[in-house]
Design goal:
341 residues; alpha/beta; Fructose-bisphosphate aldolase; 8 strands; TIM Barrel; 12 helices; Aldolase_TIM
Length: 341
């Protein structure tokens, strides 16, 4: 991991109120969506392809890494093979490269597929040595170029699938420790509706995290956690349980700019010290300006409303038409943030 990230994590473990905040960009959508992963170009070109190509997607990654406003860039192993191993994009950068270390069935979202209709089952496409060194044949050859990964778990209140998920996590931890590989842990809400009462989903996820990590020594724990934002009470509960576990939130689906900036500000207010955004950055009119504004919010320099206005001001300077008018983009549409209206 790069010095900037190492220093922030160390400072946060000593004092969650030290002032640091870790911002990550998730560009690993090709592990889930397939052709649609890079998103639709903006503005759309008449008669052009519906979706961006992977080369266009990777160019967006290069630009954001060179900008340096995020602390972590998360991508698939294939993308990191191209950018980190073959191009050396991160060699002179203080942005830490990371890969998605597993792709359980709840992130299999091909067009026409219905895998998410059944409880998540564990799976991983990659070997950690491939992520670290570019190939299995190169394992152990020098220092790893990529040495951080996202490991994801989804519990569905189902003995068979949850047991398999925990077994896979235990095997991953052993592999990671043998490889000297660092990871952060993402725990999703159940991918099957109704298996947990709606008002207990946050508590269900919190309890699974605390229970599964109780059997893990400190040396095998994740660098930080990443969960959906289930509301202030749920987040504060998890943060208070064990302050040594740095808690972060995921950005969720695309929405208004105010949704994104409010989520970041509210999560920070209630104890989160990491935020990982994916679709909200990918679908932004100008990803570089959007990321720079996210950093301003994360560092406490702008409120959510001020950030929307500042972002629209940047779009105006760049002569880029916004997707929404300023009044419309100042609307809060994310249901999980309805309390903040």
């Amino acid at each position: 991991m790069k010095p900037r990230l190492v220093e922030k994590l160390a400072a946060l473990r000593k004092n969650l109120d030290c002032g640091h905040f870790i911002l990550a960009d998730a560009k690993d959508a090709d592990m889930a969506w397939g052709v649609a992963s890079p998103g639709e170009p903006y503005p759309a070109k008449q008669g052009g392809p519906r979706y961006r190509s992977m080369p266009e997607f990777r160019e967006q990654i290069r630009e954001i890494v060179r900008q340096g406003a995020v602390d972590i860039m998360l991508a698939s192993v294939s993308t990191m093979d191209e950018l980190a191993h073959r191009e050396g994009l991160f060699d002179a950068s203080d942005v830490t490269p990371a890969i998605r270390a597993n792709d359980a069935t709840d992130v299999w979202i091909p067009r026409g597929g219905n895998y998410r209709a059944t409880p998540s089952h564990p799976f991983a496409s990659c070997y950690l040595e491939e992520a670290q060194f570019g190939s299995l044949m190169a394992a152990g050859d020098g220092e790893p170029k990529v040495n951080l990964g996202l490991y994801s778990a989804t519990f569905n209140n189902s003995f068979d699938s949850d047991y398999a998920t925990l077994e896979a996590f235990r095997a991953f931890r052993a592999d990671a420790e043998q490889c000297g590989f660092h990871y952060f842990l993402e725990v999703f809400a159940p991918n099957i509706d109704g298996v947990v009462p709606a008002d207990q989903v946050g508590a269900f996820v919190n309890d699974h995290i605390c229970r599964m990590l109780a059997g893990v020594p400190l040396s095998g724990r994740p660098e930080f956690l990443k969960i959906p934002f289930f509301g202030p009470e749920s987040l504060e509960e998890l943060v208070a349980y064990d302050p040594s576990m740095i808690v972060g939130v995921l950005g969720g689906s695309s929405g208004t700019s105010f949704d994104a900036f409010t989520l970041l500000a509210e999560a920070k207010k209630h104890g989160a010290r990491v935020a990982l955004f994916g679709r909200k950055i990918k679908d932004a009119e100008n990803p570089l300006s959007f990321v720079a504004t996210l950093r301003n919010v994360a560092d406490g320099e702008l409120s959510a409303a001020e950030a929307v206005r500042a972002y629209h001001g940047e779009l105006q300077k760049l002569q880029i038409a916004p997707r929404r008018s300023l009044p419309d983009d100042l609307q809060l549409t994310a249901t999980e943030l309805s309390y903040a209206r």
